[in-house]
Amino acid sequence: MDSSLIRGRVVGADGALIGRAALTLIDAAGRQVGRTSSEVDGTYHFNVAASGGHVLIVTAPGHQPQAVTVMVAPDGARIDVTLTGTSGLSGLVHSATGAPVPSAAVTLADGRGEVVASRVTGADGGYSFDDLVAGSYTLAVSAPALRPVAMTVTVPATGRVTQDVELAGGARVRGVVRTNGSSHPVEARVTLVDAAGTVIAATSTETDGSYAFEDVPEGDYTIIATGYPPAASALRIGGGNQSRHDIELSF
To answer: What is the band of 152 on the pLDDT scale with cuts at 50, 70, 90?
Structure first.
């Protein structure tokens, strides 16, 4: 009796080829009519004598088993099978103060840099990825007015791993430098120094006396303007806020 060829590939949810997956073909009566394993490149094939409806069962370590209906025609059939993982990743995204960050974009990429899945955090700042394959991933989190974060997470072969993420504030500070008791702007050098005395940023004012610092972390700072006798003042910056801080210089 002539046989028909059933062939295809076994791949993961991230598109990775799965070798050594076990494939079993049963007929409508539940009898095994074929068994094979996928090659390193994920490909497989059966030669089946009987036509009609069959069920293809595919299993692989670290993946959920899959059963697929196959209609075997005289000219054969091509069936590609996608297996999902058995592990999961979840956590909470919060600010430096511990407040949840809703609507943050959470992206998961595999070792090749391919995006596996993406989520948006809920009102409680929570996110969750299910059906993952064990391995190392890059977890990237971003939200408006906060500094993005990327980190490596390792997902186990089974079970769930928890990874909370803290997003620090990226505030904007702007202002105008003027002479003392006047609305006349001046050109000056403006320096931002943190509580430890480290210079975080420095800039020169525009011709209208304005200056701006972008993406400043939350914290306590001293802001110094020079060009005339220097002026220094304390500044408290909140996470993700826009702060205005005008400076007056004396002659």
So the answer is: very high
Q: Beta strands of 124-170 (E only): which ranges?
A: 126-132, 135-142, 149-155, 159-162, 165-167
pLDDT at residue number 1: 44
Residue 3: Cβ-neighbour burial (10 angstroms; 0-12, 13-18, 19+): middle
Helix (H, G, I), strand (E, B) or coil at 60: coil
In contact, 131 and 86? CB cutoff 8 Å: yes
- Assess whether pLDDT exceeds 60 at residue 171: yes
Q: Say if residues 133 and 85 touch (Cβ distance below 8 Å).
A: yes
Domains of the chain: 4-83 (2.60.40.10), 87-167 (2.60.40.10), 171-249 (2.60.40.1120)
Tens digit of each residue's pLDDT (9 = 90 or more) over 11-61: 987 678 999 999 999 988 889 999 999 999 999 998 888 778 899 999 998
Question: Sheet of 115-120: strands edge to edge?
Answer: 115-120, 105-109, 135-142, 149-155
CA 181 from centre of chain: 50
The rounded Cα 90 to chain-centroid distance in angstroms is 12
Provide CB contacts within 8 A for 117, sequence distance 6+: 107, 108, 129
Q: Which residues face 54 on adjacent strands?
A: 27, 70
The CA distance from 220 to 237, in Å, is 6
